[in-house]
Design goal:
15% strand; 9 helices; 357 residues; Aspartate Aminotransferase, domain 1; 7-stranded mixed sheet; alpha/beta; globular; Aspartate Aminotransferase, domain 2; homodimer
């Protein structure tokens, strides 16, 4: 049975990327080796490593003012690494628009004076606060936000203008829409949504922000150390970097971020339009802030939600269960989810609504 | 051309493990998905995760007094995590027998009163200090050592009896010889030598040592947090865990650690005996402390060393260049290096010696 995987991450990868990785798994580029076993100091691996970085720079339009770091630990590790590296004055502002934004703020509180300057908690994170009316504090090291909220299905459509560098967790929307990197001091993202397998974390950091880490910052979390060593200070997660490189090539061949954004907008509009007109399913998010990547929805009852998830699974539409803090369902439709997958989901939703009205 | 990969890590993986991973790469266990894209909250992944842990417990004889953690960041991340988790009294002793042991001690000095109580630096780390005559301090949180020194090719043949829990970096010898885990408070190892691809780090920690982390310890480095969440606090490096699980199955099928230890002793003895009797190659390590995993050696001159590495590469014997701090060559012959690989290396060494005497 054809399976469409709507998991929020790790998430579906492009078919041709998987097939290429499979074909070359035991003998990459006639090296006689698998990428899983080659030295990270070898020329053959170094080419993969450097191509991953340069393709990402090209796809996102990242200038030489920034370093691209290939790290480990996921966004959750960056919740600590960001304050440990950037809190030189000891003060930062956070906007809390969901689960991970809240975790990021909580972790930062261990290291300095952290203020939550705006939050969408009052309406269960179904919107993004007006960024123009936020009272940011003076003299902060940075302002932190979460561009797309995986659990609640919201996204920023506009970014605040701040004096302090803007830091964003872009885990669940990186490469899905055009972003002006120059607006940010630092961007980070776990790879397991739009980039590749779990185990790789991307950090894009403006060079002038490095070199001010707190003395208690573990060496392995220091951006400057990784930047100076081209992320070969210790052994990188080589196979995940390789898969990311293949994904970047795939995206470039498709026409890049501007092109995939159109596809993403189309996929999302198909699903949201269907939900809004169904008279059966509901999405709770304010329309203008709806995520292109994560679409939460409910049926009229919790019993039907459970039945929906169970029957969808039997039909090859998997990992649709919503996050425990929201309930219902959530369809994650990242770059690699084909239009056919979204259409198959809608067809199933139609049938289910008719049968259970 | 058949390639034998003597890299110190990432290192050669068993042929049948690679072939199985390749076969199932696009459709694991009839799930319709690759392990690189499946949710870490799915049943199919959870089975992999739990089997990896239970097989490791079985192979190493790890009792219920310990937790097995599947983490990210490599041994280098543990250089910081160990003191951040264990330094509740603020004091620890380190034995420095090489490059990584020295890095571990240096990192720990950021967090407490760290003493290097023994070192082999006086003889360029060609031996292991007598563990019975070390003056360990009183009232320390732990004693740290490095069981096998990848760069210098030495290994502990006996462990000190200490009042404080013994902590060991076993990255380059884990699963290569029988170890009594009960002698240790904590064992850690990067996966990329005897376990699987880079990107996975194993920590085996005695339960009573957890829960005393320093306030500045990042949440993601806290052993208790990972233990409480069965290492699913955030997204684990799922594909590396899967490859580790396949490696553990392979080792179990071979008869386990006691059996592979015999093979490792045989492979090492072939190589050391040849070197010692060659009248051309030299290994600088005191015989009783010679590593079973990493065999450094030199020819009579640096010019010939360079020529050796270059010609060996042309003959499919790759990554033999020694670490920059030692020079010469180094053959890493981990569990997955077949006896034939060691024999092929010796044949080449014989030929090279005759041609260059």
């Amino acid at each position: 049975m054809k399976v469409y995987n709507f998991a929020p991450g790790p998430a579906t990868l492009p078919e041709e990327v998987k097939l290429e990785a499979q074909r070359d798994f035991v003998n990459y580029n006639n090296s006689g080796m698998s990428v899983t076993e080659m030295s990270h100091r070898s020329k053959v691996y170094e080419e993969i490593h450097n191509e991953a970085q340069s393709l990402l720079a090209e796809l996102m339009g990242i200038s030489d003012d920034y370093k691209i770091l290939l790290l480990q630990g996921g966004a959750s590790m960056q919740f600590g690494a960001v304050p440990l590296n950037l809190l030189s004055k000891g003060k930062a502002d956070y906007i809390v628009t969901g689960n991970f934004a809240s975790k990021a703020a909580k972790e930062a509180q261990k290291y300095g004076d952290i203020a939550v300057v705006a939050s969408s908690k009052d309406k269960n994170h179904t919107y993004i606060p007006d960024v123009d009316s936020v009272a940011f504090r003076e003299g902060t090291d940075y302002v932190h936000l979460t561009s797309n909220n995986t659990v609640y299905g919201t996204r920023y459509i506009k970014y605040p203008k701040t004096e302090a560098p803007l830091v964003s967790d872009m885990s669940s929307m990186i490469l899905s829409e055009v972003i002006d990197v120059n607006k940010f001091g630092l961007i980070y993202a776990g790879a397991q949504k739009n980039i590749g397998p779990a185990g790789l974390t991307i950090v894009i950091v403006r060079k002038d922000l490095m070199g001010k880490a707190m003395p208690v910052c573990p060496t392995m979390l220091r951006y400057d150390i990784h930047a100076e060593n081209n992320c070969l200070y210790n052994t990188p997660p080589a196979f995940a970097v390789y898969m990311a490189m293949l994904n970047f090539r795939w995206l470039k061949k498709l026409g890049g971020v501007a092109e995939i954004q159109k596809v993403n907008e189309y996929k999302a509009s198909l699903l949201y339009d269907f939900i809004d007109n169904s008279g059966f399913y509901k999405n709770p998010v304010q329309k203008e802030f709806r995520s292109l990547m994560n679409v939460p929805f409910t049926t009229p009852s919790e019993e039907l939600d459970a039945k929906f998830v169970s029957e969808a699974t039997k039909n090859g539409l998997i990992s649709l269960k919503g996050h425990r803090s929201v309930g219902g369902m959530r369809a994650s439709i990242y770059n690699a989810m084909p239009v056919e997958g979204v259409k198959a989901l809608i067809e199933f939703m139609k049938k289910f609504a008719v049968e259970n009205k």
